[in-house]
Structure formats: C-alpha cells, structure tokens
Design a protein that fits this description.
The chain is an alpha+beta fold. It is about 45% helix and about 25% strand. The longest helix is centred in the first third of the chain and has 72 residues. The radius of gyration is 49 Å and the shape is flat.
Amino acid sequence: MQTDLSRRSYRHVPFLILLMTLVILLIGAVALHYVENRLVATTGESLALAAADIADMLDRLLFERYSDIPMMARARVFQGRDTAAMTDYLNWVQKNYQVYRWVGVLDASGRIIAATSPASIGKDLSRTHLFRVVREQGDVHIQDVEVSEDAGGIPVIGFAGPILDLQGNFRGAVLSQVTLSSVEDVATAAIRTFQVQRGATGKIEYEIMTRDGDLLVDSLLHQEMQVNLKLVALPSALLSASALPGYIEEQHLRRKVPVVTGYSGTEGYGDFTGLHWAVLVRMDRSDILAPIRAVLQNLALAGALIVLPLLGFLLWTSGRLQAEYQRAREESARAMAAEATLRLRDRAIAETSNGILITDPHQPDTPIIYANPAFERITGYRMDEVLGRNCRFLQGPDTDSATVAVMRQAIAEQRDCQVVIRNYRKDGAPFWNELTIFPVHDGSGQVTHFVGVLVDITARKDAEEAIERLSRQNELILNAAGEGIFGLDLQGKTTFVNPAAARMVGWSVAELIGQPMHLLTHHTKPDGTPYPEKECPIQAAFKKDAVVHRVADDVFWRKDGSSFPVEYVSTPIREHGDVVGAVVVYIDMSLRKEEEERRMQVEKLAALGQVAAGVAHEINNPLAGIKNTFLLLKDTIAPGHPNSQYVSMIDREIQRISDIVGQMYQLYRPDPAEPRPIDLEAVLRDVSQIMAGLLRQHRLTLRTEVAPDLPRVRLPQRDLIQVLCNLIRNAIEASRPASEIRLSVTHGEEIVSIMVADRGPGIPAEVLPRIFDPFFTTKMGSTQGGMGLGLSVSRSLVQAMGGRIDVQTAVGRGATFTVVLPCHAAIVSPSVRSEREQPHHV
C-alpha cells in the first residue's frame, strides 16, 4: 500500500518541477519586458535631447554667419572702386573665418567684381534669386542648401546683404557661402560628446535634412541631396516638423533593423528665423538593449542550477531500473537467437541490385535509419550522409509535387504505394526510379517502420522520352504542313492523317483514322462516273507496282458531297524491304485555278479601264455643271435648315467622283506637268508637310534622308509630288501604329533613286505581280477602300519621266518602293554646302 502511495506521489514531481520552471520564466519575461521598455524610453529621451542640442548649435552657427554679412557690407573698402583691396579683404575674412567656402562682392548690376576665387570674377549673378531679393528688399538674406559652381560644384548655404553708399543708395552686395562640412563638424562634435557620456555601447548615427525632407548630412553614407526622407515616409522625418523634440521607434530604411530615433528642428536665433532644418539622431535598438544581455546570461546560468534537484529524482529512478535489468537479460537471449536470422537477411538485402531503405515514423521528420549499398550506388550518397535525414533530400526542382503528395498520403494512411518519380543524385544529376513503399507491422498490428525499394529506371525512361519526342516531332511536322498528308495500310485504310488533309475534305482526323480513304474521298471521277479501286493510282502504289504515282489533274470529294481539284503523289512505304502501305501528299488546286481566272478578269478590267478612260472626258463636263449648280444651291441653304446635314455629304461625294474620274483620265491619257529645275530636297520637305496630318492620324513617323551633293534635276514637280504622296499613302495604310516610314534620296552617275520604305506586313508573293494593274486593290470593302489606280497612275507618271518603279518586299518585313529617274535630267550640280540639313521627322 505504501509503495502504491509513493508511486502516486512521485508521479506528480515532474509536473511540479515543470510548473515552477514556467512560473520563473514568466516572471523573468515580464521583468525583462519592463526593463527593456524603460531603457528604450530613457535612451530615446537622451537622443531627443542630443538632437535638440545639435539643432541649437546649427542655429548659432547660421546666426553667426548671418551676422557677419552686415559687418562685411559696412567695410570701408567696399565704398571705393579698388577691387584688389576688396579681394584682399575677402581673403582676410576667409582666412580668419575658415567656415567660409567662398566670399564675393557684386556691383549694382549683379556682376562679381571681387571674390576669394579668381575664376568667379566677372560672372553675372543678376538673375539669381538671392541677388534680386537683396537688391529689391535690402535686408540680409539666407539661401537654403544648393549646389554652387563658384564653390566647386558642392552643396553650400548662401548668405547675402546689401552694400549701401553714404546716402543709402544700393552699390552692390556681399555674398558668402558656407559648406555642409561645417554643419557636419558641429553635428559630429555633439555626437562625440554624447557618445562619451553614454560609453562605448553601440554606434550613434545622425542625419540633417531640410524642411522639405531633402537629406543634407548623413553620418554614414553621405547621400547629400540624393534622398528625400519625407517622400520615403520615414516616421521620424515626418514627426520632426512638430514644435517639440521627441523620439520614435522605427525601422532603419537601409538595414531594415529596429532603431530608436530622436528628432528636433532648428528654430532660429535672435532676429534670425533660421532654415527650419530637422536633426535625426538614432541608435539600433539592439545596441540599446545590449547591457541587458549580460543579465540574461547570468539568469540563464542560474536557471541551469534548477536542473540539479532533478538529479536526485533520477538517482531514485535508477533503483527501479535494476529490476528491469534482469528482464532485459532474458530479452537479450531471445534477441541473440533472432540476430542470426537477421544477419542472413541483411546480407541478402546488401547484395541486391535494388536500393532499399528503412525509415522510422516514430521519430521527428521520419528519418532514414538504414540504407543498403545499392542505395548508395544509385544515389551517390554515403551511408553517413543518409542516416538521420528525411528522404526529401533526393528531390529537386523537376520532382513532381503530385507524385510526392501521393507518397505522403500513402504514408499518412499507412498503406502500400508504388510510384515513378524523378530524383537527384549527389552530383546533381537527375535519375528516374520506381519506388515501392510498404509499412512494417509489429505483433499488435501497429506500424513500426516503412521500407522503400528503389529501382533505377533512368535508361528505360530516357528511351520512352526519346520515342515520345520523335513521335511528337513527326506529329508537329504533319500538323504544320500546308499540304494534305495521309497514310494507308495494305487494306487501304487510313493509318494517319494531318489536320490540313482532314480540313480539305471536311472530315475530322478522328473520323478518318481506320476508314477506307478511297471510299470517302476518291470514289468518283471528275466526270461523275464511279472510280474503281483497281484503277486508282493511289492504290496502285502499294497493291500493284509499288512505284511512285503522280497525278496532276484529279478531284477529291468532301464530306458534304462537293469536289475540288487536286494534285497528288502516292509513295509506297517499305519496312524491311516489304511494302506495308503508302503515304499520299496532295494539294488543293482551287487557288491556282482561281488565280488563272483572276488574271483573265484583270485583262478584262484593263480593257474596261481603257474604255472608262475614254468615257472620263465625257463625264467631266456634266460633272462640272453639277458641281457649279450645287455650289449655287449650297449658298441658299442656311446652317439651321433641316437638310443642311446633307450639304457636306453631297459636296464630298461630288469631289470623290471628280477624283476617280481624274485618276481614270490620268491613267490612260496622261497630262504631264511642264518639267522645270527642281531641288529634290525641297520636294521631300513639301511631301513631308503634305502627309503630316495623315501621319499624325495613324501615329507614324516619316524619316527623310538626303544624300550629300544632290544635283538639281529637270522634272515635273507636280507629278513627282503626286507619285511620292501615293507611295507614302500606301505605306501609311500598310504600317502598324507607332512605327517609322523612311523616305530617302540617293544618286549615282546615271540615276537618281527615291525610296519609300515601310515596316508593314509586306506584299504576299501571289499579290506582287498584280499591284500595278489598273483597278487592282486588296482593300475592297474596308474603310481604306480605293479604286486600285494609285500605283498604276504612279507608274504611268514615272514612265513619262523616263524612269521606273522597283519593288522589294518580304512578308513580315515591309516593302520598299524605289523611283529610279535618269540622271541625264540633272542640270545643276550644287556648290559645296557647308552644312547639310540633318534628317528630319514628321
């Protein structure tokens, strides 16, 4: 009974020890938190006072320099005209007051007549703000920090005051400049004093900024005038505008660590209002709390002494272990008997070629507790590098997360699973392995361990991927081909078909696979009679002669019953010398036949255009009468009339008819303008101005380039401008927004070339032969629609000048039209031009 009571008493001892430890830790944490807050608050107040001291010192420094200006302005030497004496006086001031970077005297017009820097004498400062304020208001003024050339291109603070003669008239001004280094010296001295008072416990940083937040002085990075602390929303910078000094806990902008920042602002001194700068002084929070760390170490040492009472408890428990010792000896005898069996099993596991590992799910993170030599050979890891680690170290960037999830689910559910997963060897090389995981149960059915068996299947996987890659590549080739391609077996059934072939006949790829192609697409001849398989050239390639059959004029039939002309080639497929089928490649001849019909249609339209050109003259006379009559009626219709909205539409359509008739007339009965000497460079400028509005409307840029020493030529200027405007208009319609059109002129010994180049989609090869045909256009039905006469008229005008139009184009790379004119038209060689106009943009 006593033993049971003692056993129950001892059972509560660990809980009591744990409770005491928790109480001590809680009390220590509360005390530590309180001490930290008080230490931070005390240091913050000290930093605020240091910032206020620095601000007061800066006010005194600036007030002294502010007071120096009236003293220097009243110097007798400035009442005369002896600039050398003035310079000597200024040098004396700078020598005795080394805080000055530069001192100078300006006359009443604002020009420097004496200065400590000879290089600045003679400069005109009449437009500077500081001089104008002094001249107009007459008082001493100070200018906040700015970069000064007179001071060597560094930031300075400017002071200025008026020089008055004996009658009080303005004779000039005294200017002085103080560098930020003087300000920094004041701050550094104050910080050193503060550092000595605190002792060597952490580094103190300081910053001085303007009223707007621009950084003037930085004790570490020297980023003067490069950072605005208010724009980056630094809390201490924003709070510095308040009237009273203070401190705040914030995060360091650069190092991203907690800091305590004291802030204060300058308030002026005496009648000097000051520049309202802000001073920030900060320390790392960790440096402030550094003294507490020693206390914490002592507390930790004292806490360790709490463990000593537990030693007595452990000694008491050792007696109970003696009873367990005898029982362990009995278990050891049984274990030795089983050890021989396990040793044989281990030898078999070690000799297998498959990797085997065992994990313990009862330990944290389920570590590996055994791995056989095969596992080491497969992964490249030694045994000591594997034991105690989770299997996930074999995973890498390309390991499938879904497969990993399957394994985790199986382990969580304590069941078998088999997966194929990509892992990584020690040298970083990936490998594929087939992993089988199964649980090991004890006598009571509980899972004690998991066993994994790895089979390296990298070679098999690589072969499968190569086959898949080759198959995919062949599929992509077939899918990308524009010709119809399909394969047939010896029974004439479809084994493969590409999308182009299926699309041409109106079937889907899935509907054609396994079906007799002849019965679906080649069952009838062009004349409508049945087409027997034994007469089919496609079938003959693998059923009769096993040779290639080419047919240039045949028809295939679509799913909807319609036919289309085709040209095809049937080639037998051989495997090990035996014919096993055929592959058929065919093209739809409909487009070619349509092009032939279109050519005939163009010839008809050309003939019709010639007739239309003859009719154009007859239309012009009544059209002129209609236009004149409309102009008379137009003046009688007031803007508020119900039908006034149709006036502009009628006027526009009359003009459109007139333009069309003019183009038709110009095409077949050209009326060339009178040739005269022209400057091609001026012509390009005129064309640029004419097309400027249309270019802006399409958000395009016209770049003109003129070769040097360009001769004047005798050409009809009006016709040349019309040709170039037509070519540029076509380039605009072909160009993408925000791109560039290039207009350039070059010349050789015998020709002058004018090129118009765009970066549009280019001209398709099937359209290029017809672009100069009358009435041919690719813009029918669009908002840009035209009659198709622009290029035809342009070619006629250029031919009338004795030249030609060449075209160079590539699909996707734009088109270049080149007007080539004979150089014998050149009449004047230009004199040597001193400066050639640079290429200009519209």
